[in-house]
Design brief:
Elements: E1 6-11, H1 21-34, E2 38-43, H2 49-56, E3 61-65, H3 82-87, E4 92-95, H4 98-104, H5 108-120, E5 124-129, H6 133-137, H7 141-152, E6 163-166, H8 180-198, E7 207-210, H9 218-222, E8 229-232, H10 239-248
Parallel strand pairs: 1-2, 1-8, 2-3, 3-4, 4-5, 5-6, 6-7, 7-8
Amino acid sequence: MKQSVKLIAGNWKMHGLSSALSEAQALKDAVAASQPACRVALCPPATLTDRMSRTLSGGGVELGGQDCHEKVTGAFTGSVSAEMLADAGATLVILGHSERRAAYGETDADIAAKVEAAIAAGLEPIICVGETLEQREAGEAVAVVSAQVAGSLPDGLSERDFAVAYEPVWAIGTGLTPTLEQIAEVHAAVRAAMVKRLGETARPAPILYGGSVKPDNAAEILATAEVGGALVGGASLKAEDFLKIVNAA
C-alpha cells in the first residue's frame, strides 16, 4: 500500500477548459521544485483527462477521474468506464462523492460495484462518505458514515490501495467546516468501520477530509488525528492556492 504519506487530491468537478491545463502545468512545476512530503493528485473533468495526463507526465502529480461506470463497456451513453480512465492516463478515481449520491441517487451498492470496476482496471479508488446537515443535527453522523463505509467497500479492496474521504455534505462549498473534534470523531469511526469491514489490512489506508478545505485551515485539519490527507474542491482550481494546501501537509 502507498499509505505512508498523506494524499492531497484536487477535485475540479465540472470546471476546466483547455486553458486550465496551464494550472496543472504550474502545479507540476511547483511540486517538482518543492518536493512536498505528500502525494499530490488532480481529478479534472473527463474531457481533460488525456490532455492533463500528457501535461503531468514525468512529474510528481498523479491523475484521477471523478467517477466511473460499473461496467467495462456497453450502451451507457455519456458514461465513462474505469478502463477508459486508465487508458487516458488516470491512476485514481473518486467514487461515491456526495454530489453523485444526492443528484444521481447512487446507493452504497452502486458505489461498491464501481469500486470493484476501478480496482479491476488498476485504478486506486477514493471512496467518499458523509452526512447531511439534518443527520448531523440529529446526532446520526457517526452511524450514517459507518453504514456508508460498510456498504460501499467491497471485499475486493482487501490488500489493494484505496482511500476513504470523509466529506460532511453540509460543509461542501459552503465555507462551513466541522470542528477539529468533530472531524477526529468521524475519522475514528471511519477507521473502525473500515477495519470491521475488511480486517486489519485496511488499517493503513488513508482517510482524507473533504469539505471547504482552504489554505488557511488546511494545516490544522491535516494535523488532526486520523486525517491522512484532503480532498479539495474549489481551492484546487488554482495552482497557487492548491500548493499552499499541499505544503501544509
